[in-house]
Amino acid sequence: MIKVLCFAYLKEKVGNDRLVLEDASLTVDELLCKLEKEYAIDTKTIMVAINEEYAIKEDVIHAGDTVALIPPVSGG
Fold first, then answer.
1. Could you read off the pLDDT of 41-76 as tens digits, one per residue?
2. Of 11, 24, 44, 47, which sees the most CB atoms within 10 A?
3. What CA–CA distance (Å, rounded) separates 71 from 74?
């Protein structure tokens, strides 16, 4: 089980602030592709962190990991 935390507008797109995936492992790129297909999310600008460390597309997410999806944010 992989826990995925969604922030900002991603919560509305997904319909929840977290997802639980039953995958044993997958790459960050595979996760982003899955989100694009299932939730019509443009993932090009989303940063991903695995267990509170930023990740690149080739990094592998394992069962038990917590993933954070961090969209770009603006403020002032």
1. 999 999 999 999 999 999 999 999 999 999 987 665
2. 11
3. 10
Contacts 24+ apart (CB under 8 A), 33-37: 35/69
Q: Measured in Å, how far apart are the chain's first and last C-alpha atoms?
A: 37
Domains in the chain: boundaries? 2-70
CB atoms within 10 A of CB 1: 10
CB 26 within 8 A of CB 60: yes
**How many CB atoms are located within 10 Å of the residue 19 CB?**
20
Residues 2-70: name the CATH superfamily: Beta-grasp domain (3.10.20.30)
Neighbours of 49 (CB within 10 A): 15
Radius of gyration of the chain (CA): 12
Q: Name 49's bridge partners.
A: 54, 68
